[in-house]
Amino acid sequence: MPVPNFICIGVQKAGTSSLINYLNQHPDIFMALDELHFFDKPKNYILENNDFSRYESNFNTDKQIIGEKTPSYNYLQFAIDRIHKYNSNMKLILILREPISRAFSEYNMYLKFNNKKLSDVSEKEILEVFKEEEKYNLDELENNGAYFIVRGFYDEIIEYILKKFKKENLFIGISEEIIQNKSKYYNNIFNFLNVKKIEINEDDDTHKGNYDKNIPKILEKKLFKIYRPHNEKLYKLLGRKISIWEKYYEKFYN
């Protein structure tokens, strides 16, 4: 039975649905089209005698490079633990998006799931929701959920992953940089997966959403203060600043 040897573990709202399309353009790669949520949902993670055949039945292919994408795996430490138990040599793809815009995009998606629009809620309601989100810590999470703020603590997320997996098993991409040069960055991912470079069709995106109201300025500034120390630690982990994010942050430094 074919078994996966890589997983895109997130992050949510960073173009990971498009990543499925682009990786499936490669003749040597198979990616499951749906989010499997095997390692993060109790109803799915049911093992008998350490048998993963139910999970592996999702990969019906003759190809050798096989993967799936579930963007909630990255921030749930128990999910990372389970992936490591399944395959300690699993290759992991982590795509990061600027955390303020990521958090607000997720909130917008949350409203859509509840048949609401941003224009249906007041600024006060938005601020109250995000105030409630401040109470969560990554190491305390026991289930998947919205968690708009802590999903953007990328430094903590990466540090935990690297406690379990070798550094060479983790590919970290920046969503905004990938959008600007898809051919370059997807071929970097192909190299990470040990397959040949190809010329991709660069018009294969999905899930492009629009807001009917901008993020409240007071929330934007608050989130910048929350994320700033996490971003500084992230930059140290990456060995560089992310210039496209810093350009957006210039207004907060002045």
What does this 3D model show about the protein?
The structure is a single chain. This protein is of the alpha/beta class. The chain has one domain (6-253): P-loop containing nucleotide triphosphate hydrolases (Rossmann fold). β2, α2 (53-56) and β3 form a beta-alpha-beta unit. Strands 2-3-1-4-5 form a five-stranded parallel beta sheet, with helices on both faces. α3 runs parallel beside α6 and α6 (154-164) runs parallel beside α9. The protein has helices at residues 16-23, 53-56, 77-86, 99-113, 123-133, 154-164, 175-180, 182-192, 217-238, 243-253; strands at 6-10, 29-31, 65-69, 91-96, 170-174. It is built from ten helices and five strands; from the N terminus they run βαβαβαβαααβαααα.
Give the gist of this structure.
This protein has 254 residues and is an alpha/beta fold.
Task: Outline the fold blueprint.
Blueprint: E1 6-10, H1 16-23, E2 29-31, H2 53-56, E3 65-69, H3 77-86, E4 91-96, H4 99-113, H5 123-133, H6 154-164, E5 170-174, H7 175-180, H8 182-192, H9 217-238, H10 243-253
Parallel strand pairs: 1-3, 1-4, 2-3, 4-5
CATH class: Alpha Beta
What helical percentage do the residues reach? Answer: 40-55%
CATH architecture: 3-Layer(aba) Sandwich
Low-confidence stretches: none
Strand order of the largest sheet: 2-3-1-4-5
Helical/strand content category: alpha/beta
First-last Cα distance? 57 Å
Beta-sheet strand percentage? 5-15%
Main β-sheet: number of strands, strand sense, barrel status?
Answer: 5 strands, parallel
What string gives the helices and strands in order? EHEHEHEHHHEHHHH
Count the helices. How many? Answer: 10
How many domains, as an integer? Answer: 1
Question: On the 0-100 scale, what is the average pLDDT?
Answer: 94
